[in-house]
Amino acid sequence: MNLTEKISYIRGLCDGLELDESKPEVKVINAIVDLLDDMAFEVSDMEELYDELSAQVDEIDQDLADVESDVYDDEDYDIEDYDDEDDDYDFDDEENPFYEVTCDSCGQKLNVSEDVLLEGEIECPNCGENLEFDFSNLFSDEEDDDCDVDCASCGGCSDTEE
User: Which of UniProt's keywords are assigned here (predicted)?
Assistant: First the structure.
């Protein structure tokens, strides 16, 4: 039984008692029943508005999730969530290569894009540790005998000097 039905039931009880309308106590009871009746209608209107608002918020939330997936490049992508049948992430893509990074704190292995590496840091989605990437030694003027970088492209080693 909802509020409106309960108020109708109380009103029916009052009418069934055949109370004398001229007595002050009966006038107060009738005024209270009228007030409860008005409040029940207001509450039911608010419930309807709440349901509409809730549906709109759900739509906005879904739209926002769509926008976030379009705008952000899924930097927090976790390799454990990767579905082999899902082709959204091509780790062999030559235009947008992914690199495997291991968190020193928790040992979690992450596949991150080159853009994320160039930003210099990322938060480990597993433990929250800040992972920093330093490429300053790749572009230094000092000679590095163990350099694995193609020196023709970076110009960092003295091997390129002729």
Answer: Coiled coil
Question: What CATH number is given to the structural domain containing 116?
Answer: 3.10.660
> Rounded CA gap, 67 and 127, in Å?
27
Based on the domain organization, do 37 and 88 belong to the same domain?
no
Domain edge (last residue) among 71, 97, 130: 71
Pair (49, 94) in one structural domain: no
- Read off the pTM: 0.38
pLDDT tens column, 33-75? 999 999 999 999 999 999 999 999 999 999 998 888 888 765 5
Given a cut of 50, whether residue 161 has pLDDT beyond it is no
**Boundary-marking domain end, from 19, 46, 71:** 71
**CA distances for 144 relative to 19, 27, 141, 157, 162, angstroms:** 104, 98, 9, 6, 16
pLDDT at 49: 96
Query: Quick one: pLDDT band at residue 126, thresholds 50, 70, 90?
Result: confident
Check if the beta carbon of residue 79 is closer than 8 Å to that of residue 109: yes
Print the domain residue range for 109: 79-160
Contact 154/136 with Cβ under 8 angstroms?
no
Distance CA 141, CA 97 (A): 27
